[in-house]
Each structure stands twice: as structure tokens, then as C-alpha cells.
# Entry
Amino acid sequence: MRIGPVKRVKLILPALTEATSPFWRPIKYSLFPPLGLATLAAYLDPDLEISLQDEHVEKLNLDDQPDLVIIQVYITNAYRAYRIADHYRRRGAYVVLGGLHVTSLPEEAAPHADSIFLGPGEHTFPQFLQDLAAGTPQKLYQSPVRTLQGLPPIRRDLIRRPSYLVPNSIVVSRGCPHHCTFCYKDAFFAGGRGFYTQVVDDALAEISRLPGRHLYFLDDHLFGNPRFADALFHGMKGMGRVFQGAATVDSILRDDLIKAAAAAGLRSLFVGFETLSDSSLKGAGKRQNLGRSYREVVRRLDDLGIMINGSFVFGLDGDDGDVFARTVDWAIDNGITTATFHILTPYPGTALFAEMNANNRIESRNWDLYDTRHVVYRPSGLSPDDLKTGYDWAYEEFYRWNSILRAASAHESSKHQLKHFCYSTGWKKFERAWDLVIRIKQLSQMRPLLEAVLAPVNRVANSIGPEASPVHARPLTVGSHMV
Ligand code: B12
Ligand code: SF4
# Structure
């Protein structure tokens, strides 16, 4: 370990394991830049020599000699992150690790780092920098203060914008007010507030700093604080933005917030339906979905011309062999534009993991497999093989040409039908074309093209919003949110 003057700083997002597999969909990992690291970089002295590398879009240069190395650890990049950390420690750098996986399993991460960080970094990272300068860095930093007030502007200049399809990703809150047992949220925010927002004016200022029209809010639940969200959407009205985000079933039905969002430019929404079964919802602690009409959710969003990216989980206790066909049929019949299916995954640190561990149901602790595509536990009503086969079938079935046509025809307006068809096929049926565009480094050229081919929003969104133009956001499957 080296404690001395810091001149060169390197921030690294190591590649997620699945991103290096032959089944890798490069486009999925070229969507969003490493926002967490760019947020941390804002606390560094701008006069330092700073580099930010995202292994999903570039080859890492590991032959350099940084003084301080900052690595973000997700569960499926953990082994890679540890190897990189060990490498730089051998080279004499001071290495710090943080992020979701470090917070879940600090004992596992600690031997690979000089300092580790649990929870959000907005308070602890600047504290660490002060300690490091004073020659007294701590081994462990745990975030006690939770606020997004007075943040320095994110160092977006360190991000290679052309490498990403959605460089304008943004978060205006942290966490979520709910407590689903499978979600990372309670573990990550343990010991402090689990849901808090920016000041509205700061969020609006951040938005206005972003070039172009399209934004993607990566917040877990953009409608989680209705007053904040309402003020945000009113502030955004007239900015000429089109955006995507995520929200819960109940928040779409609760009041008119969704209309304000549509008027501000919301064009596609990630919705955590998770399961059609009430008893499975109860088991997963997803009370906010209980007793809500999913059909009504779909109808409201349809009326506003907002496309739906529906999230569904397979393998919850209570799921049987019929769950796959039941879910896929429902999604198609209801005109869900894109669907994200997940195999239930007990992330370490969650209530779900604790319960399964206590019942000896965890079958694998190979974190590389914790990508919601593998069965890592013993399901109750299905064999592991049936669960995996059913999950694969669900994706195939949902994105068949016939299914896409059927789902598109569920919308009343022909414009919406066409829009649905174009989005769904564009995203899932042209992977080779996407790969080529990424390989020849022309992804940024696709952004305006992509926006231009998007069909107009329907009459309601047009009539209430400033977005009379035919340019819209895409329903890209984040493929990640709300497992
Ligand atoms: C964007 C995103 C992705 C992108 C990631 C690309 C990228 N450039 O980051 C893509 C599409 C590739 C992706 C894929 C997946 N994702 Co994802 N994703 C997200 C999302 C929506 C936003 C991440 C983000 O930018 N947050 C905003 C920034 C500001 O926060 P942050 O990154 O956490 O950084 C802060 C702290 O963590 C901390 N910090 C982080 N690193 C470090 C390092 C140091 C040294 C310090 C001091 C602090 C620190 O400080 C930062 C500022 O506070 C989150 C949900 C969310 N709201 O966070 C899910 C989320 C991370 N994904 C999740 C999942 C499940 C997945 C998938 C498995 C889904 C799937 N089936 O495909 C895959 C694979 C991920 C994996 N295997 O681990 C889960 C994570 C579960 C877990 N325990 O790992 C999340 C939390 C969603 C959820 N609610 O469940 N995802
Ligand atoms: S799964 Fe979604 S709704 Fe549930 S706690 Fe996590 S972020 Fe919130």
C-alpha cells in the first residue's frame, strides 16, 4: 500500500462477466456510461491526471502507474475487479473498492483493497480524500450521511460519449421507498436513509446541462416521492426533452403524476410487474403491487402513448410449470412493448438471500452466475432445469415475429401499433447490425437516426405535452432494473 502525494487517479468499471461471454449482446453493455464513477470523480481535484475506463466499451490499459485506483464492483464483475485491484496494489497504487457487491460482502472485498466503501459514496469518498491527503486513510468507510444536496457537477467530461447509445443517463434520487425481499436496496442503504432525492432545482440544472433531447432516468423509482416528481416534471415541461424511466405499478394508478410525466416528455416506462400471482407478490414483499389492476396500468400508459418495458421474475415460491406461458401470454395480449424476464436471484445481503441461506436453498456461490439468467438456488415448485428452460422459452416466445405482431396489434391506434413493432424489432431482431455499428465505432451516429425513425406519440401525449414533434425516446430494455 502506498500513501503519498496523489498525482494520477484511475477510475475503473470492470466488465461484467456476461459481457465477455460469446452470448454477449454488446449493445446492452454500450447503453449507459459509468455514472457512479463520474459522480465520484467530481470530488477529485480537477488538476490531477484523471482517467476513467469502462471495460464494456474499451480495452483496459493495465500497464500504467496510477497513484490511486478507484474500482466499482457489481456482483458479476467482482472476480475481475479483485484481479485488477490485486494487480494495481502489486504496482504500488492505493486501491479502493466500493459499490453494491462490496457493500453486500465487505469481508470478501477487503483483502483486495486498501480501503473499502459501503453504501453510497457522496459523503464517504470526499472524507476519504481528506484522510488520504492527511496520511490517515481508514480501512473501511460506511456511509452515515445520506444527502444529494450541494453535489459537485458530475464529471461527464471524463465519459467517452460516442461509445454509448444513451450517454444522457441521469439519477435524481437514490434508492426506493419500498422493500421487496429480492431487491438490493435495503442492503445497500442499510444504516441510513433508503430513499432520498435531489433538490428539484439542482436536478433541473443537471438536466439542462445535458446536450441533445433524450434522457434516461436510472432512478429505481422516479415517482417514489410524488411531490418531488411532480415539481420535476413541471420544471421539465417546455424543455423539449424526451425521456425514459422506471416506476412502480401503484404509482402509475395513484394520481395524475403519470400525466405530468407524459407532458414533460416521458415516452417509455420500466414497470416492475414481476408476477401475476398475488401469493408470489406477498412472498416477495411486493405489497405495492397487491390488488392493483395490471390491465389498468397498461391502459393508462397506452392512453398517454407511453411504451411499457415490463419486468417479470420466474422462480418465485408458488411458481409452477405454467408460469412461463401464463406470463408471456399476458404480456403479449396486453401489448407490452419490451419485456425483461429474470430468473429469481438471491443477491447476498438481501432478505431473500438470508431466508434461502437459512433453509439451505443456495446451490451456488459462484457470483459470475448471479446475472438473473442462471438458477443459483433450489426453486420450490419447479426443477432448476425446468426453470432455466422456461425462462429461455419465455424470451424466445415473446420476441417471435408472430408475438411481436400480436402484441403490437393490442393497441388501439395504428400509430401506436407501428411504433410498438418498430421498437420491439429494432431492439431485438437486429443484433448483428448493432454489433457491427459498435465494432465500427459509429454508435453515436445511431442516436439521431434512432430518434428520427421513432413513430409519433399518440394523440393524448401530443395534446398535453410540449412534444408535438415526431421525435421520441426508445424503449430500450435496461435489462437490469428491479430484478
Ligand atoms: C445502469 C444499470 C445497469 C447497466 C450497467 C452499466 C453501467 N455503466 O453502470 C447494465 C445495463 C449493463 C446493467 C446490467 C445489469 N444489471 Co443493472 N443497473 C443499472 C442501474 C439502473 C443504474 C446504475 C447507476 O448508474 N446508478 C447511479 C449511480 C450514481 O450509482 P452507483 O453506480 O450505485 O454508484 C454509487 C455507489 O454505488 C457508490 N460506488 C460505486 N462504486 C464505488 C466505488 C468506490 C471506491 C466508492 C467510494 C463508491 C462507489 O458511489 C456511487 C455514488 O453514490 C441500477 C439501478 C440503480 N438505480 O442504481 C441497476 C442495478 C445495478 N442492476 C442490477 C442488475 C440485477 C443487473 C443485471 C443482473 C440485470 C440483468 N438480468 O441483466 C445486469 C448485470 C449486472 C450484474 N451482473 O451485476 C441490480 C443490481 C443487483 C446487484 N446486487 O448487483 C440494480 C441495483 C437494479 C436493481 N434495482 O435491482 N445494469
Ligand atoms: S424491486 Fe423496485 S420497487 Fe422493490 S424495493 Fe427494489 S427498486 Fe423498489
Observations:
- The pocket of iron/sulfur cluster (ligand 2) is lined by residues 176, 178-180, 183, 185, 220-221, 248, 272, 482 (CB under 6 Å).
- The chain has a mean pLDDT of 89.
